[in-house]
Amino acid sequence: MIPTNALDPALTAQASLPDLIASRGHLLLVGNVARRVISPGPYSATKEAVPSMGESIRREVSAQGVGWPA
After folding, report:
1. Total structural domains in the chain?
2. Which InterPro entries does the UniProt entry name for this protein (predicted)?
């Protein structure tokens, strides 16, 4: 569960960023609303990782021309 929900989006973003920076492209990370429902175990935490990671990446690379869908 943790690799699919948190690690895979991170690895995809990491692999895509050099081309996105070069082309001044857009990065879109898709999560779901399950992150807003607190449940026992790691499931909610792994779902929260995607938007948190996206915000972190946005702050890091927006000055390099990578855009974000509105």
Report:
1. 1
2. NAD(P)-bd_dom_sf (IPR036291)
Residue 26, beta-bridge partner list: 67
Assigned domain for 69 exists: no
The per-residue DSSP string of 4-69 comes to: IIIIHHHHHHHHHHHHHHHHT-B------GGGGS--SSSHHHHHHHHHHHHHHHHHHHGGGT-B--
Q: What domain range is 13 assigned to?
A: 2-64
pLDDT tens for 25-54 read 998 888 776 666 777 778 778 888 888 888
| 36-39: long-range pairs with CB below 8 Å, 24+ | none
Q: What is the model's pTM?
A: 0.74
